[in-house]
Specification:
This protein has one domain. Helices cover 40% and strands 24% of the residues. The protein is built from 6 helices and 8 strands; from the N terminus they run αβββαβββββαααα.
């Protein structure tokens, strides 16, 4: 899995923004708001990813976890509100299915996949309009992963 220095470089390329760094965190400023990810939290995310399996495309899983990329019907009108979840219980098999935003570790995973596939330019071209991003980040936390999710 990528390290924090590689992640910083990939983000700079994907977001087309300067990513700052200090001893404890990476951060970016967007419209007078600072979005951060601590190096400790990044390490937790990559440790989770290292403990999971992948199909080397868009799937991560283990014995009790399965996450895969899905595509919404419309780039501008999302199917779920931020932090919304559609949940279905399969009581007979003891499985809970959830449809929601990507987990933080999945965001790191897919960013790395976009970079490895050489799709940085395509990612920048598919970003949401700034008006949508502004509305989303007004309600979002100051976490860098949430800022990336908004893009």
């Amino acid at each position: 899995m990528i390290d924090i220095i590689e992640f910083k470089g990939i983000l700079r390329e994907l977001l087309n923004m300067e990513i700052e760094e200090d001893d404890e965190k990476l951060f970016v400023e967007f419209e007078d708001k600072q979005f951060t990810i601590t190096k400790e939290y990044f390490q937790e995310l990559t440790s989770k990813l290292d403990s999971r399996n992948t199909d080397n495309e868009t799937l991560i899983y283990d014995d009790h976890y399965f996450e895969v990329l899905t595509r919404g019907e419309n780039l501008y009108a999302t199917r779920l509100m931020p932090n919304g979840t559609i949940k279905k219980e399969d009581v007979q098999n003891g499985i809970t299915y959830e449809y929601k935003s990507c987990s933080d570790e999945y965001i790191v995973f897919i960013i790395n996949k976009i970079h490895e596939a050489g799709l940085t330019r395509e990612f920048r071209g598919a970003r949401r309009p700034l008006g949508f991003v502004r509305r989303y980040i007004d309600e979002a936390s100051n976490q860098l992963i949430d800022f990336i999710r908004a893009m």
